[in-house]
């Protein structure tokens, strides 16, 4: 049976695009064109510079930032995201060509784009996503690491803490949103040293306390440099963190040869070079 999107596509449309991490320099030609030709552009970008740059591309750019809690207001982020999605969809329902421009990659740690696209398609509108340069892409470039050398694992920090994930200490381990590690209420935007001590204790099952870890933050502007702070795992609870901090834990063990599989393939460890 054909989907509603294929059989009854309404006039309004939605495209979620990524602006990349570095202002103006990391957006694709196609994504920039979508912004320029949209009737309405909704934005979630990190600062006023990025907001003004979008305003130079389109005369109707509407920031979604005001939907977050303001001042002393306590607001669940689920409510915030629902309000953002409804604002986007209301413009689509009005028959407009809508673009949602999101910092980095629109599909990575960005639930608003996924929710909005899913709802738009359910209601019969054309909706899609265009990729952008993510923080992970910048991390590998800035740190000079090829994740293909040992492989890598990637988890949201709080999810890693709350569920029984098992890291492989022979690979690179990325923990995203380390700045809110252990936060479960969806009302706070920072973690605590106590939460980070619990995380260190958890990680110590696979990594020595003196194992070197890296705190990384991608630059937003061409004049900025990436944050690359190296420190022992035991010092993580005392490190300054922000909303864009990412934790990289390099391998603590060498890759282990699977001799049983090599024998079945008719090769030896020496053949691996």
TrEMBL record:
Q: Where is each Tetrapyrrole methylase domain found?
A: 14-217
| Biological process per Gene Ontology, one example term | methylation
Top-rank lineage group of the source organism: Bacteria
Which keywords, in A-to-Z order, does the entry hold?
Answer: Methyltransferase, Transferase
Q: Answer yes or no on keyword Methyltransferase.
A: yes
* Gene Ontology MF term list: methyltransferase activity
**Name of this protein:** Methylase, putative
Q: Which organism is it from?
A: Shewanella benthica KT99
């Amino acid at each position: 049976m054909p989907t509603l999107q294929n059989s009854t596509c309404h006039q309004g449309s939605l495209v979620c695009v990524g602006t990349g991490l570095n202002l103006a320099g990391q957006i694709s030609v196609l994504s920039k064109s979508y912004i320029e030709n949209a009737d309405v552009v909704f934005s979630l970008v990190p600062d006023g510079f990025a907001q003004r740059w979008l305003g130079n591309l389109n005369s109707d750019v509407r920031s979604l930032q005001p939907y977050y809690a303001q001042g002393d207001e306590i607001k669940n982020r689920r409510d915030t995201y629902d309000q953002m999605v409804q604002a986007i969809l209301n413009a689509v329902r009005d028959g407009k060509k809508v673009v949602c421009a999101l910092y980095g990659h629109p599909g990575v740690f960005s639930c608003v784009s996924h929710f909005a696209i899913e709802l738009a398609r359910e209601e019969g509108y054309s909706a899609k996503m265009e990729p952008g340069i993510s923080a992970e892409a910048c991390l590998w470039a800035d740190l000079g690491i090829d994740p293909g050398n040992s492989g890598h694992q990637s988890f949201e920090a709080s999810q890693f803490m709350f569920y029984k994930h098992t890291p492989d200490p022979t690979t690179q381990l990325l923990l995203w949103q380390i700045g809110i590690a252990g936060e479960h209420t969806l009302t706070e935007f920072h973690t605590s040293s106590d939460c980070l001590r619990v995380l260190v204790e958890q990680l110590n099952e696979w990594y020595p306390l003196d194992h070197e870890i890296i705190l990384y933050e991608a630059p937003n502007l061409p004049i900025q440099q990436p944050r690359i702070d190296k420190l022992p795992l035991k010092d993580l609870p005392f490190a300054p963190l922000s909303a864009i901090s990412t934790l990289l834990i390099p391998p603590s063990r060498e890759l282990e040869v699977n001799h049983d599989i090599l024998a079945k393939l008719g090769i030896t460890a020496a053949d691996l070079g």
